[in-house]
Design brief:
about 375 residues; Rossmann fold; five-stranded parallel sheet; 10 strands
């Protein structure tokens, strides 16, 4: 039976003692500058971090909230600037493949003791160590070895990644947690997409054939077949992807009997700026795609989604929000990150279009 996706969260009693203590109340007058370290700069990573930044902004409304880390600039700049819970961005330098120790020492000198609180979302030793050296007044980390504020949770427990990072707010006693990333789409983006869609008759369903990593992609032939089935049910299909995926979108279009809408062919900004895609999602009744940044961006616009998961785990990175469905076979070898598969990606190949149609019926009509 097809069911709505439920985000895997901690047991309700896990933070009961923290909620009683409400440590954040005692810190509100002390904390003026808070840096939240977030690794992983992809579109999906950025969207799924929004609930954490919102929680800290609600706990400490008078504080400057800084995103410390990296994201896909300039592609994600418009999305980043649309998040109302982040006041500043600081690119983090630490020793690694792209930065030298000299880069880090310059960064350390500039920001030593500059933050009242650093929130470290990673449990890894090296990552926490270099952040800890910045010597903030308080250091809260998912690595209990460095955390000066109590953090005793097992980071290997199987919950959604957003629930894991939100544990950093819950540890401080913040109870009003929302596992949703919906924000307002700026009017400039909405007006362009709405004017563009006036040329077509709805209702619209968005399809995302691509993914940041090809091994996560559902076969393009199945996307083409799915598009035609949506047309037979009375929906207009919009194919969405980044500029680099234009060829893939055209391939899927050629596989369809009915001509889909491909916005980036008519207007290049649709393939360059994700906020224009967010406007398309906002105007659509449903989005279907593999585990990719665009799928998570659709949830940001409040559009229900059907996520097609194979080598990645929906427990860890399923879509946020409500009224979503995840199609996942859960084979014994899943999840994995193998770029070459000995069983021809059965985790994705075994998902058929009828399953997607059934999931769409549940979301759109309440039947399964």
């Amino acid at each position: 039976m097809t069911e709505l996706y439920k985000i895997k969260d901690y047991h309700s009693a896990t933070f009961k003692r923290c909620y009683r203590r409400r440590v954040y109340k005692k810190l509100q007058n002390e904390l003026k500058i808070i840096a939240i370290y977030k690794s992983g700069g992809g579109l999906g990573d950025l969207v799924q971090s929004i609930p954490l930044f919102r929680s800290f902004k609600e706990m400490f409304p008078q504080a400057k909230i800084i995103y410390l880390g990296r994201y896909q600039r300039p592609r994600c700049d418009s999305l980043f600037k649309s998040i109302p819970y982040i006041d500043e961005y600081i690119e983090y330098m630490r020793p690694g493949p792209k930065q030298t120790f000299r880069d880090y020492f310059c960064f350390l000198k500039k920001y030593f003791r500059k933050f009242n609180l650093i929130v470290d979302t990673q449990p890894k030793f090296a990552s926490s160590f270099y952040l800890w050296l910045l010597n903030p007044k308080y250091f809260l980390s998912r690595n209990p070895f460095f955390s000066e504020l109590e953090y005793l949770l097992n980071h290997k427990v199987k919950v959604h990644i957003t629930a894991k990072v939100l544990s950093l707010a819950r540890i401080l006693g913040f109870e009003k947690i929302t596992l949703s990333s919906i924000i307002e789409i700026p009017e400039d983006y909405l007006s362009l997409t709405q004017n563009y869609l006036k040329n077509f008759s709805g209702p619209f369903i968005c399809i995302l054939p691509g993914a940041g990593h090809p091994f996560k992609m559902w076969p393009k032939e199945k996307f083409g077949s799915l598009g035609d089935k949506f047309y037979s049910l009375g929906y207009q299909v919009i194919l969405i992807g980044a500029e680099a995926e234009k060829g893939l979108l055209l391939e899927v279009s050629r596989m369809m009997k009915n001509k889909p809408i491909i916005p980036l062919i008519d207007e290049s900004r649709f393939g360059q700026d994700p906020m224009f895609s967010a406007g398309l999602f906002k105007s659509s009744v449903l989005t279907v795609g593999s585990d990719c940044g665009g799928l998570h961006l659709a949830t940001l616009a409040g559009c229900p989604v059907i996520g097609i998961y194979g080598p990645t785990s929906p427990v860890k990175s399923g879509p946020l929000g409500e009224k979503n469905v995840v199609i996942y076979k859960g084979l014994g070898c899943s999840p994995c990150r193998m770029k070459e598969c000995k069983i021809q990606r059965r985790c994705l190949e075994e998902i058929d279009t009828d399953e997607i149609i059934k999931a769409a019926d549940l979301i759109l009509n309440g039947t399964s």
